[in-house]
């Protein structure tokens, strides 16, 4: 849910936030954080990236995967729009998992990024964050 709230702050003016979760009961809670639509893969007979492509006329602009499930990571990448879509992988997969996708997904100018700290660079940025916290600066 924090990721949803953070997304609304980064991408001001976003009109749609689609949450994907196996548990449809989470939609009511997600709406409080700005989710406008909800997709449960269990409700569909096709891969979730195909469902999202149909809903969005070709794919989403950005996707963020937070579970660490390798299948969710692949879906997050495969649901972004050709040419400009960006998937950000936050969740940590199992050590032996392999990220497999068709090479055309990359050649079609989709982007995948991984992150542990968002855009922070721990060595250069973390000291200033600690200093601001210690001085109670927001």
UniProtKB/TrEMBL annotation:
Record has ATP-binding as a keyword: no
SUPFAM superfamilies: NAD(P)-binding Rossmann-fold domains
Protein name: Alcohol dehydrogenase-like C-terminal domain-containing protein
Quaternary assembly: Homodimer.
GO process terms (BP): formaldehyde catabolic process
Residues covered by the Alcohol dehydrogenase-like C-terminal domain: 12-131
Lineage top rank: taxon: Eukaryota
Gene source species: Quercus lobata (Valley oak)
Pfam families assigned to the protein according to its UniProt record, in alphabetical order: ADH_zinc_N
Gene Ontology CC terms, in alphabetical order: cytosol
Lineage: Eukaryota, Viridiplantae, Streptophyta, Embryophyta, Tracheophyta
């Amino acid at each position: 849910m924090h990721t949803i709230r953070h997304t609304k702050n980064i991408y001001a003016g976003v009109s749609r936030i689609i949450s994907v979760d196996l548990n449809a009961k989470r939609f009511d809670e997600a709406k409080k954080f700005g989710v406008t639509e909800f997709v449960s893969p269990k409700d569909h007979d096709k891969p979730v990236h195909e469902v999202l492509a149909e809903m969005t006329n070709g794919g989403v602009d950005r996707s963020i995967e937070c579970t660490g499930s390798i299948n969710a990571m692949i879906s997050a990448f495969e649901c972004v729009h050709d040419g400009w879509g960006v998937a950000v992988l936050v969740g940590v997969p199992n050590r032996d998992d392999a990220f497999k996708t068709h090479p055309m997904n990359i050649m079609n100018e989709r982007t995948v990024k991984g992150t542990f700290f968002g855009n922070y660079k721990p060595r250069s940025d973390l000291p200033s964050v600690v200093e601001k916290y210690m001085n109670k600066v927001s």
